[in-house]
Description:
single chain, alpha+beta, 4 helices
Amino acid sequence: MVTGDTIRAMCHHRIMVAPEVYRVTVGPKGRVVIPAALRRELGINEGDTVSMTAVDGILEVATPAGAMQRIRAMFAEKVPPGVDLVQELFDERRREFERELREMEEVERTPQRERKSGT
Length: 119
């Protein structure tokens, strides 16, 4: 059902529903009250922390969960399917540790007078 508050647009043969827009007034010290309907929808409660960003002249307010979802989506676009970045990081750190360990063992095997003379 289309109401007066809902804007529909045709885009590549899909109907896109524009989100409801809330007009708020900036109060003293730059304070803005998030409308109750948005707080309920996003699960924002008194005392919660949100992040704010300006993107192309638009103020975006995000919950921690929403920000994390956006970050995951950004990385998902860049990482090929089946690649586990965490495992790759662990593997890289393990290889680095093993390389450093071999270097330390080599230093320990070098006689001390050679270490002092630099040969």
